[in-house]
Amino acid sequence: MIYTVTLNTAIDRVIYIDGILSRKKNNKVKRTFYDIGGKATHVSVVLSRLRIPNIATGFVGEKNKEKLMQLLEEKGVACDFIAQAGCPTRETLVILDDAGEGSFMITEKGFSVHGDTLEKLRRKLSEKVTEGDFAVFAGSLPPGLDGDQYRELLQAAAEKGGKLILDTTGAQLRSAIRLKPYAIKPNEDEFQELVGKRLNTPDEYASEIKKLLQAGIEYVIVTLGKKGSLVGHGDEVYRVLPPKVKEVNDTGCGDVFVGGFVAGLHQRFPLEKMIRFATALSASKAEQPESSAFSPERAEQLEGEVVIRRLPA
Amino acid sequence: MIYTVTLNTAIDRVIYIDGILSRKKNNKVKRTFYDIGGKATHVSVVLSRLRIPNIATGFVGEKNKEKLMQLLEEKGVACDFIAQAGCPTRETLVILDDAGEGSFMITEKGFSVHGDTLEKLRRKLSEKVTEGDFAVFAGSLPPGLDGDQYRELLQAAAEKGGKLILDTTGAQLRSAIRLKPYAIKPNEDEFQELVGKRLNTPDEYASEIKKLLQAGIEYVIVTLGKKGSLVGHGDEVYRVLPPKVKEVNDTGCGDVFVGGFVAGLHQRFPLEKMIRFATALSASKAEQPESSAFSPERAEQLEGEVVIRRLPA
């Protein structure tokens, strides 16, 4: 089974307004709807869309839990969250106007996770995640959860042979590295922060990626936004150039990439096929206005255009 | 009794963010709270703060009704609303950042009022509002309510001798004029739209105000923002200059003015005292950052600074 773990779940409230958002005027709502927020839950949506069984878990605030569960169930995602009583799941406002210059995102911190809530999730992961399973941890930590507690959760998911796939940053990522996760997916800045060095060329990246591979991480993926990615596996590092698409909205591309990558692992794709699939799927997302939209059909057309080169050149 | 009637109630969700609201970044919430939206409910808050008995009525969406009732009860307002099942009361987003250049207000239209909901309010007004009562109608119409239906509600409130005080605009105000309300309070633009003329001087305004007084409206008040107001009553029109204050936030000043005015009517203040009181109360609001904050103590200090001149000069 694939488990996605969202520790700081969110519900996106997407608001389209008429005209350009301005101060001191009545900005009128054209259309508003709720969408799933929280990185790992998005990965679940991608997997479910690809018909790959998975379970979304993590923490939710009990007050508006039903809203999030409903959104996930509409997308075919099976849920098994730990709810903390008396707390709301945070809402992220995503405001879009007619300027076409990107959205305004307004985020709350989320509720503070109690010790017993944490323990419930630790126990669940320890019981459920077994040999051959994948556990995808993605997104930020909620208030009240420190690096040690985060590592305890990762350990619980790994202790019976679960494979950790981490899309996280900063101190969290650094502290998780010691557990030798199966895969990590930082972006350029996050990777440079992780290795504590300014890196300028693909070869410089490749050399640092190889060190992590040698330390026991199976997949080290550094995403470069619209420039593609660097993928390290075994003894090799590859420079991956994405297909050229007309970018409409790149929000959510990273989550689609992770979903495609995990889908590839689950289906035991050969490395090259897996890279092509995840990259093309992510590119198909960039062509769409909605944050959680992507097209497996379009990805199939785009796969052939993905360029993969071994490094150093 | 004083009844305030809000046909398009709203709950303000006030959000303070860190830094300047910008696109394509994570704007973090510093502080967020709910406040009362909807003009007539604000008038109720002013009256209750001045310890003047009043009842807030109108339409609310049943889904989040409790939130609004709680906010009103915290301010000591007695509520007697008609709730429409299955609908949410609209939420207005008020976003404030560190720029100090005014807020971003994002408004929804509100739910569409059904025929039976309308009929319930019509009956309530007809039964409750009697001789000597005031009925304050303020704010916009909800979707699904046309000018004729609006006038039916006004008629219901007036039929046993209730006095209508209207803070509304456009077609609504025009159609209400035929009922000879007790008082109207348009601003400059709204008044010019009402009389269908461009007005340039105080004397030109005075001449039009007098026509409405002669047609049977007891009080015609044209508010001029920070420039004060024109007040017509009996055979006279007065130019009212407000005290000089340091304006921090003028949102809500109009509602405080109406609240002060109705409080004055209720307490049978002489005209001059009533004008001084409402104007000073409104000025005390402008000195405060919050939309529903004002200070009766400060207003007392400011009353003497209000200048009242008879027109034409």
Automatic annotation (TrEMBL), chains A, B:
Organism of provenance: Caldibacillus debilis GB1
Database matches in InterPro entries: PfkB_dom, Ribokinase-like, Tagatose/fructose_Pkinase
Reactions performed catalytically: D-tagatofuranose 6-phosphate + ATP = D-tagatofuranose 1,6-bisphosphate + ADP + H(+)
Protein name: Tagatose-6-phosphate kinase
GO MF term list: ATP binding; phosphofructokinase activity; tagatose-6-phosphate kinase activity
Classification via CDD domains: FruK_PfkB_like (cd01164)
Pathway terms, separated by semicolons: Carbohydrate metabolism; D-tagatose 6-phosphate degradation; D-glyceraldehyde 3-phosphate and glycerone phosphate from D-tagatose 6-phosphate: step 1/2
Gene Ontology annotations for the cellular component aspect, listed alphabetically: cytosol
Keywords, ordered alphabetically: ATP-binding, Kinase, Lactose metabolism, Nucleotide-binding, Transferase
EC number(s) on file: 2.7.1.144
